[in-house]
């Protein structure tokens, strides 16, 4: 009996020893890239802008700062200086007919609409903020704390990186420029003696047009540096490569898939009274008659249930200016900035057409997609020409918007707030969204340079905060 037990325990010990997990040793390394000193160049996405403002924790959770932290495991010097905002409430300037007006970041709170309904919605962190205080927070110079490794600046287009005196026009750069009246933003990169760079630029060259409903211009592809996209992008790359011989560049995401463009439905006019339907149809009978007389297919017709909004569209080209209106099509887009109370209480979309700046028509969407394709083609070719890593964020955005994606057990879609990817402005990223972007960059760098930079756990970063 004792022999049987001895044999039994011997077998158990053997099996236990043979089933020990195999540890896959992960040794971080930089491969052929030198990650000693890293500089991040770009716009608001690089700066860490989120929730319609630039604020301290947003900067800290930006993808560039996450990258720098991971680079430190693979040869980075551990230094990544950011021109930090002095406030967690954030500051965002807006040009109004009465001059600059400053707002804080958005948070999720309770909002009461024009008919008294209370619901959760993005609201300012500080309603009616002290304008002098916010102005000082945005414009007080931090240049003495530089040079900075993160030189992402909200609002910049590719040509702006080359423009001397940009700091006088863009306070986000002016606050950390040594000489705002003369310095060019791209010149900041060399100050940290970079060995590696990231460049994510070009979004605003299309986004400005899209987010204004087509009222601003798309950057032309051709033209000299400072004007045309191709020449400007090449000049920026060459300036960076004069200091750092390796880097990663990223293309432009499909911005029309962002929550800013996909949240508000095209048909929010819900009619439940036949008398309303009859009155509106009667009111638009002269319009329908005029369209028939012109031989044009446009008709404005109302029925019970959801109805498409009436929009202004000067591209219709009708000689009578007031007749350049129509009902929006299902494949056209309503911007997140549209005043909801104007639809509910000021008869926008029914008696009054929605102004052009709140709508992306089919023609304007096509303009955005064509420009994005052309710019992205050039960016990818540039990565190949200069031997740089390439992050295809356009493909990532298409995947998120079509099927969604799962990272660390978290599902990401392009849904506003609940999709986890976009912050409360519908364009910029949540901390978890920035972690996804950082990992995407790391994949590109590891693949191109034979590096072994560890990725981050997306779930370690905060989601969108609900009350």
Write the layout of secondary structure elements.
Layout: H1 2-18, E1 38-42, H2 44-47, H3 56-60, H4 63-71, E2 92-96, E3 99-103, E4 106-112, E5 118-124, H5 131-139, H6 171-174, E6 196-200, H7 203-211, H8 229-241, E7 246-250, H9 259-262, E8 269-271, H10 274-283, H11 285-294, E9 305-307, E10 310-312, E11 325-327, E12 333-334, H12 340-345, E13 359-360, H13 362-386, E14 389-391, H14 393-402, E15 405-407, E16 410-412, H15 431-449
Parallel strand pairs: 1-6, 6-7, 7-14
Antiparallel strand pairs: 2-3, 4-5, 8-9, 10-11, 12-13, 15-16
Helix pairs in contact: 4-15, 7-13, 8-13
Overview of the structural elements:
The chain has 15 helices and 16 strands. By secondary structure, the protein is α/β, with parallel strands linked by helices. It has two domains: 282 residues, SGNH hydrolase (Rossmann fold); 92 residues, no CATH class. Strands 1-6-7-14 form a four-stranded parallel β-sheet, with helices on both faces. A two-stranded antiparallel ribbon has the order 2-3. It has a two-stranded antiparallel ribbon with strand order 4-5. Helix 4 crosses helix 15, helix 7 runs antiparallel to helix 13 and helix 8 packs parallel to helix 13. The radius of gyration is 26 Å and the shape is globular.
The name of the CATH superfamily of the largest domain reads SGNH hydrolase
Distance between the first and last residues' Cα: 67 Å
Rg computed from alpha carbons, rounded to a whole number of angstroms: 26 Å
What characterizes the major β-sheet? 4 strands, parallel
Number of distinct helices: 15
């Amino acid at each position: 009996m004792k022999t049987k037990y001895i044999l039994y325990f011997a077998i158990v010990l053997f099996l236990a020893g043979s089933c020990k997990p195999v540890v896959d040793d992960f040794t971080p390394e930089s491969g052929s890239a030198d990650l000693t000193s890293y500089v991040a160049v770009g716009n608001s996405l690089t700066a860490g802008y989120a929730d319609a403002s630039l604020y301290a924790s947003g900067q800290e959770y930006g993808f560039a700062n996450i990258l720098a932290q991971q680079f430190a495991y693979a040869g980075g010097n551990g230094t990544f200086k950011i021109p930090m905002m002095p406030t967690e409430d954030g500051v965002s300037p807006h040009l109004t007919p009465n001059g600059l007006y400053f707002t804080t970041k958005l948070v999720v709170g309770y909002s009461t609409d024009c008919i008294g309904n209370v619901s959760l919605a993005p609201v300012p962190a500080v309603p009616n903020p002290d304008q002098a205080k916010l102005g000082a927070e945005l414009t007080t110079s931090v240049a003495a704390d530089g040079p900075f490794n993160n030189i992402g600046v909200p609002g910049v287009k590719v040509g702006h990186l080359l423009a001397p005196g940009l700091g006088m026009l863009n306070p986000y750069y002016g606050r950390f420029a040594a000489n705002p009246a003369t310095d060019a933003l791209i010149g900041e990169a060399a100050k940290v003696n970079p060995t590696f760079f990231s460049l994510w630029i070009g979004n605003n060259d299309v986004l400005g047009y899209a987010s204004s409903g087509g009222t601003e211009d798309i950057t032309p592809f051709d033209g000299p540096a400072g004007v045309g996209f191709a020449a400007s992008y090449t000049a920026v790359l060459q300036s960076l490569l004069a200091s750092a011989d390796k880097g990663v560049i990223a293309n432009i995401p499909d911005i029309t898939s962002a929550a800013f463009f996909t949240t508000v439905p095209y048909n929010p006019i819900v009619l439940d009274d036949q008398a309303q339907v009859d009155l509106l149809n009667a009111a638009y009978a002269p319009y329908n008659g005029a369209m028939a007389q012109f031989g044009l297919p446009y008709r404005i017709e109302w029925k019970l249930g959801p109805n498409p909004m009436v929009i202004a569209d000067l591209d219709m080209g009708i000689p009578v200016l007031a007749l350049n209106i129509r009902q929006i099509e299902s494949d056209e887009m309503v911007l997140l900035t549209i005043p909801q109370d104007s639809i509910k209480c000021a008869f926008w979309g029914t008696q009054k057409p929605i102004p052009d700046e709140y709508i992306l028509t089919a023609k304007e969407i096509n303009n955005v997609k064509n420009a994005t394709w052309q710019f992205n083609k050039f960016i990818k070719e540039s990565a190949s020409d200069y031997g740089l890593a390439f992050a295809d964020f356009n493909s990532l955005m298409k995947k998120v918007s079509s099927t969604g994606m799962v990272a660390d057990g978290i599902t990401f879609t392009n849904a506003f707030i609940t999709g986890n990817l976009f912050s409360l402005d519908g364009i910029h990223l949540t901390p978890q969204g920035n972690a996804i972007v950082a990992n995407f960059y790391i994949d590109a760098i590891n693949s191109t340079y034979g590096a072994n930079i560890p990725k981050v756990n997306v779930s370690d970063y905060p989601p969108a905060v609900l009350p």
